[in-house]
Write a structure and sequence with these properties.
The chain is built from four helices and no strands. It is rod-shaped, with a radius of gyration of 26 Å.
């Protein structure tokens, strides 16, 4: 968070506390705009992080088909390339 965002949050906390105590406090339009922009930014970052996690999980955690294939050929000296290629292509879809 940048200084402007921190200032807007602090101002809002103070103003809400004053309102709770019965003291008048006017919200500055710029403060509200900064808060809304901060919320939008955090929502966007959250969505990007979710996509990153999904991609990471798909890429680095083997799925059951690959595990099954490895287990099926674990006593062999090789795993048929055609089978691995098919599973990887299915994952990309």
């Amino acid at each position: 968070m940048n200084k402007e965002e921190k200032k807007a949050i602090e101002y809002s906390k103070n103003c809400l506390m004053k309102i709770t105590l019965g003291i008048d406090c006017e919200f500055d339009v710029n403060i509200l705009d900064t808060l809304l922009n901060t919320i939008k930014k955090l929502q966007k970052e959250n969505e990007e992080y979710k996509k990153f996690l999904e991609k990471t999980i798909k890429e680095y955690i083997p799925d059951y088909k690959l595990e099954e294939l490895v287990n099926r050929y674990k006593n062999e000296s090789f795993i048929p390339r055609v089978e691995v290629k098919k599973i990887l292509e299915d994952r990309r879809k």
